[in-house]
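Record pair follows.
FIRST:
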Amino acid sequence: MQLPMTIREAIAASERPLIGMWCCSGSPLVAEICAGAGMDWLLIDGEHGPNDLGTILAQLQAVAAYPVTPVVRVPANDPVRIKQVLDLGAQSLIVPMVSSVEEAQAAAAAVRYPPGGIRGVGSALARSGRWNRVEGYLADGDAHVSLIVQVETMAGVAAAAEIAAVDGVDAVYVGPSDLAASMGLLGQQTHPDVTAAVLATFDAVRGAGTAVGVNAFDPHAAQRYLEAGASFVTIGADVTLLARGAEDLAARHTSPTPGSRRKG
């Protein structure tokens, strides 16, 4: 049995940047709708979304029938949770809040089996190796997993080149929201100083020969980052699309029009 491509392989195989979106609702149905929308990749969010192991598994199963690469963001750089999510069959992970070489090395160790890492061995019991149906899964474990570390602080920006060079880190994903907060610019993801820090991170990561991505819901920011060499970008989220769409729908049909009066 052959497993699908990881995000590392999808980036390498693509002739253009990969465009993706967040799945934050925790709903397998919503994830499936998003999977069929034409995006290249989906980020199933276990950090800020209401997701647990059961909902992550259900979403991985729901999107498996579609030509889209799922990426799971774990809630923290925790080897136990990383092991559990990998055993669910997640092949591509984002580990948030990586601000140092040591934290990047810890994440890389968590996704690898010994002797190269510390991942617990349970593939015979798990969806990851399809219950021993993937021949040589343990021996080829590194090939089946792709690790993205998320730089979200000024400390991470300063160490970006060294983080990107860590063995086992396949890509760096920049988070402007927390980066803005770390710079004293809470809620100002498109502030010029934040944008400059993102672009500086791009330069450092690409200089190390590593793919770099970013979260950019603002279309102008997304375009700027794509032009600056982003290999993968998230441009929206299921919950924000629903919220804004519902608001627009309500506004069109509830706002008073000139000359209209309520009937009493």
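SECOND:
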Amino acid sequence: MLIIRAQDYDDMSRRAARFIAAQVLLKPDCILGLATGSTPIGTYQELIRFYNEDGLSFKDVRSFNLDEYYGLSSSHEQSYAHFMQLNLFDHIDIVPENIHVPNGLTTDPQGYGKQYDELIETSGGIDMQLLGIGSNGHIAFNEPGKYFSAQTRLVDLKQNTIEDNARFFDSEDEVPRQAISMGMKSILGARRILVLASGSGKAEAVKEMLEGPIDPMLPASILQVHPNVTLIADKAALSLVQ
């Protein structure tokens, strides 16, 4: 795994955006796997700047998001579909038909998850997958557990994940307890993976991802088996890594 040590969050965001922009320039019709949460917001802001100031076009790009809260419609202000529109899609020239975010209102999560994975596969697979890492080591909403789950599916969120995400809601009680999450098969199927980490709250998870055994109790540890992973992290997130 290639480790890039950024000075701070802004430096991390700029470096990550350059990686993604290079992918789009190299293959204008590439497939990007995209993440949500606070970590990639700065990266998306940089990509918007590249679009506005440098003419970087996303008109042929297709995207697949990692996850969506179960029970929230795409119009809900806390849905990840809304997050992506607000923080990226509304500000670039990506074609709406090329955007894929899991449906949080599906009545058949198992069947829907299978269809989502099949759509990624028939589209050619993900060229570059952007990931954050949770304080408990989750990637997407693949939470710590007894085994690695391959398929996109309905997952129960761990209490610390709910607590971490409560800052985006008026109260912890409003945070959904379940989500539709891309599984490890599609994530590891990406030709290139870009992991972002910022802040001391991610330091322990980053250390275990890099140095610990491959263990489903630390889901991000499975990235050790992928041949092309780049971690861009700031000093605080890498503070426990020698």
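COMMENT: The first strand starts at residue 2 and ends at 6.
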